[in-house]
Design goal:
Blueprint (H helix, E strand, L loop, with lengths): L1 H15 L6 H6 L8 H4 L7 E5 L2 E5 L2
Antiparallel strand pairs: 1-2
Length: 61
C-alpha cells in the first residue's frame, strides 16, 4: 500500500512541480482511486500513512 501512495505522490510532484499536501488531495486530483484515500491510509500492520511536508510517512499507532 505504501508503495502505491509513494508512487502517486511522486507522479503528482513530477506533473505539478509541487508536493501533495494530503492523501485526499491525491485522490481528488486522480492520483489515487476516488474514495480510497481513507482506505489506503490504513496499513495491514496497523500503521497509518500520512503526508507531511509533501512526503509519505508511515505512522505507528
Amino acid at each position: 500500500m505504501s508503495k502505491m501512495v509513494m508512487g502517486a505522490a511522486e507522479a503528482y510532484k513530477l506533473e505539478t512541480n509541487e508536493r501533495p499536501k494530503s492523501l485526499q488531495e491525491l485522490a481528488q486530483k486522480g492520483y489515487l482511486p476516488k474514495g480510497e484515500a481513507n482506505k489506503v491510509s490504513e496499513c495491514p500492520g496497523g500503521q497509518k500513512l500520512t503526508i507531511a511536508n509533501g512526503e509519505v510517512k508511515i505512522v505507528e499507532k
